[in-house]
């Protein structure tokens, strides 16, 4: 059970709800804050004060006054009009992440919503009723208006949802679950859609995926290091620590542990002066990726525990503020995209080296009787294609801004597009890492000296699913099997203390 209180949500908790279907509940303290905020809002409304999005229009229509009898209907009109997304739907995992982040933000007690709104979100999460949300439509400022409006539309019983394996009318599914459609009242529509929860939800999920993939990339690199008979001299602690970056120092320590006891590496280190960069500079490059991940964790954690709607209510005061602007998480989405793309670039260059007999000293394309057999020639092509795709995708979305709402919203973050791109970058990186696992495991077959215990265990686990390549077979099947192993987490588990530093 994940208990939300507006203060203690983490990317890992978001992932537990989104991917692992952990149930959610609202803390008692948060409930009291929400009730107090709602009462403050209603006091302001009853006093006749003009409040943006409550008794005014939205965006550039902010100066249009709304009649008292229309203030409730205004909120449902807002949701219907803003549900204007386009394109392939977001996965249920990403939609669940949006929902838990939105609920957590609203329960901080500055948004003026009723507890029933948050409870409706929690009900849908716990009953696994997932709104259908087209992936495109948000510019990442004034909140993720279009995607969150599609969630709200489903809460009203008017949109589509997935329930089990079916896509159905939301009203029917809610009725079967024993609950009626939610009716958004004063400010609740604008409070719900005016926030960064789509960017932040997707980013939280993709951050956890990135971290898991980074751990697998360390393991696959260690296997390649054994297969290419690298020298660990470059990982010497005093030399690495002469440069102060924490990620670099940690990755070097991890590799010293991963290669400990390897007779293969010890003998190679005696014979070699230095390695090419894709081996020698693993601490420097992977360490920079790790430092980027740690920076991303900090920003994401702040954002998913923040209030991001507008206006905000605090007692008898209310302020139109710009917390809905997605720039902090837009930058992080783009920063992660760049770091993960370059991680894939480095892996692909090792794959080119490991399949080139002139550079590796291994049989051409990692198979005996090459020529008759092509071996693992083409997986490197696949990795190259995936790297090329990621290089295109990592162009920063946040470098662009297209004004909206008749220039009232004249600078936007494009952060949602940045987060969406990160999904595909991670998908592609997963394939690149799986290919390194595959080819590095095959390279190990030609190493005659003992390798480290950690690498031996990793190799053994892969061999339980993917046998040694003795004659040509479709590598795509082998890659798919390793992706399956990666998704179970067993290879990260096999690494043991490798990742406990």
Alpha-beta content class: mainly alpha
- Order of helical and strand elements: EHEHHEHHEEHEEHHHHHHHHEEHHHHHHH
In CATH terms, the superfamily of the largest domain is Fumarase/aspartase (Central domain)
The helix fraction, in percent, is 55-70%
Poorly predicted ranges: none
Explain what this protein looks like in three dimensions:
The protein is mainly alpha-helical and 501 residues long. The chain has 2 domains: 2-195, Orthogonal Bundle (Fumarase C, Chain B, domain 1), CATH 1.10.275; 202-499, Fumarase C, Chain A, domain 2, CATH 1.20.200.10. It contains 21 helices and 9 strands. The chain has helices spanning 11-18, 28-46, 71-82, 92-106, 115-126, 145-155, 170-176, 188-193, 197-227, 237-240, 246-258, 263-271, 277-280, 282-304, 327-355, 357-360, 378-393, 415-444, 453-465, 475-488, 490-494, and strands at 2-4, 24-26, 86-89, 129-131, 134-136, 160-163, 166-169, 312-314, 317-319. β1 (2-4), α1 (11-18) and β2 form a beta-alpha-beta unit. It is elongated and about 85 Å long. The chain starts with a strand and ends in a 7-residue tail after the last helix. 52% of the residues are buried. The mean pLDDT is 94.
